[in-house]
TrEMBL record:
InterPro entries: Ergot_Alk_Oxidoreductase, NAD(P)-bd_dom, NAD(P)-bd_dom_sf. Signal peptide: none annotated. Residues 6-169 form the NAD(P)-binding domain. It comes from the Bacteria. This is Uncharacterized conserved protein YbjT, contains NAD(P)-binding and DUF2867 domains.
């Protein structure tokens, strides 16, 4: 049995499909079980930050955003239930000096390591789905406004993160992911303008990219309700990538045996989200 927290999230949901395809038994926690719409063979449990359903669980996938302040309780209970591996969804921002998102996840990673449980820390960079934040501007104005236009990142499809997470869970006894912290990326380095170009090709709509100042971007994100520490973390990540371009990681290929998915293909699959007919 494998426990998946954040079961309906961008990584948790494809992870469940990966595990089911491998014939594994899956238990999933979610804040809204009634509307989770998970496959019938999944055991769905109401999320609780103080108590986790760990009976018979071999390994746990931990999405920090899904468990709130429950990490210490989860680790204590996992140890009592002889869980054989904790797979933590972290971030490649842990390597960016002074990045608040990276510092937060580095502290979470340390708590997992200090627990004495076997672990894998997954450190993906920017998710492809982050670009869905541009959808309204694209639909209404055919424009993307963002800072740090020269930042070069290697955005990753969440399904590729899920595939690596699945292998980390399924091979929990002994393998190269034991007590490892692999950095995950997509297959190519792109600028924001490159991503806008791919969305334009996917939608058949002429789009333009307009660079804005970091200050203007910060104000817009805060006004949209994004927590200030997250805003500073995102902006810091792109500022860093302007001078230190992301390096494409071989890990997805090495672990799954196939190349990670291209952003252009993701954009084609999600074209409707950016379409004026959406």
């Amino acid at each position: 049995m494998y426990l998946i927290t954040g079961a309906t999230g961008n990584v948790g949901r494809p992870l469940i499909d990966h595990l089911l395809a491998a014939g594994a038994q899956v238990r999933a926690t979610t804040r809204r079980p009634a509307t989770a719409a998970l496959p019938d063979q999944v055991e769905v449990v109401q999320a609780d930050e103080t108590a986790f359903p760990l009976d018979g669980v071999r390994a746990v996938f931990v999405n920090p955003a899904a468990i709130g302040n429950g990490l210490d309780a989860l680790l204590t209970q996992a140890k009592a239930h002889d869980v054989r591996r904790v797979v933590l969804l972290s971030t490649s921002a842990v390597a960016v000096p002074g990045n608040p998102i990276g510092e937060h996840h580095r502290e979470l990673e340390q708590r997992v390591m200090d627990s004495g449980l076997p672990w894998t820390m997954l450190r993906p960079g920017a998710f492809n789905s982050n670009t869905l934040a541009w959808a309204t501007e694209i639909r209404t104005e055919q424009v993307v406004r963002a800072p740090y236009g020269e930042a070069r990142i290697a955005p990753i499809d969440e399904r590729d993160i899920a595939a690596v997470a699945g292998e980390a869970l399924l091979s929990h006894d002994t393998d190269r992911l034991h007590n490892a912290a692999p950095v995950l990326s997509g297959p190519e380095v792109l600028t924001t303008a490159d991503q806008v170009r791919d969305i334009a090709a996917a939608t058949g709509v002429s789009l333009r990219f307009e660079e804005v100042s970091p200050e203007a971007a910060r104000q817009s994100m805060v006004e949209a309700g994004v927590p200030a520490f997250a805003v500073d973390g995102v902006l810091g990540y792109y500022a860093h990538a302007t001078h230190h371009p992301t390096t494409v990681s071989p890990v997805v290929q090495e672990i799954t045996g196939r190349a990670p998915r291209r952003f252009a293909d993701w954009a084609a699959e999600h074209a409707a989200a950016f379409s004026t007919t959406h």
